[in-house]
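Quick question: what would this complex look like in 3D?
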Amino acid sequence: EVQLLESGGGLVQPGGSLRLSCAASGFTFSSYAMSWVRQAPGKGLEWVSGISGSGSTYYADSVKGRFTISRDNSKNTLYLQMNSLRAEDTAVYYCAKTLGGSGWYGSSFAFDIWGQGTMVTVSS
Amino acid sequence: QSALTQPASVSGSPGQSITISCTGTSSDVGGYNYVSWYQQHPGKAPKLMIYEVSNRPSGVSNRFSGSKSGNTASLTISGLQAEDEADYYCSSHTSSSTVVFGGGTKLTVL
């Protein structure tokens, strides 16, 4: 079964850091670009960041310079390092597998498999 | 990157058809055939319903269809069913190599 399982969410103070992980199973992880998408409480979806199978990275303007996406293909795991966190970063963070291949531009920019999400709360 | 524009809500009766619009610019929706649509039920993760404007993933009902004209994409649901009641989001690739979502549309089945 194709599955994504996020972990690492929690409560953090403004200005703090947190690292999210997403463990993938049931598919050849290195063959697909991956993304993080977040959803603030009661709000819509917001794309956060994407990474190709070989490690090229892409970021939304709202997190550029503060968040770093990475992957370890040997461990079938996607990461999101979040620094300088702000209240507006409070959200459920989903990892998502792209429909297409390993390249970002061959991915169809469509997300066919999603994790269950992990909640990040930034508050003092 | 501004969010794509969707109506906040739409409604329809069982058996009817509804259409949800998604308006962007020539730098996203209008410039690429990389529009996707997602269905999200409360407390659940989104589900991919349409990709590349009009393609359905395996397992998605053919009652769901997508199209695009200029800077506006559309999702049509025919033969509306109670289980279709959910939030729907469009997304598009952008000229900045990013992805942008719409604000979401709440579909109510009357």
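Answer marked as accepted. Strands of chain B lie at 9-12, 18-23, 35-40, 47-50, 64-69, 72-77, 86-93, 99-101, 105-109.
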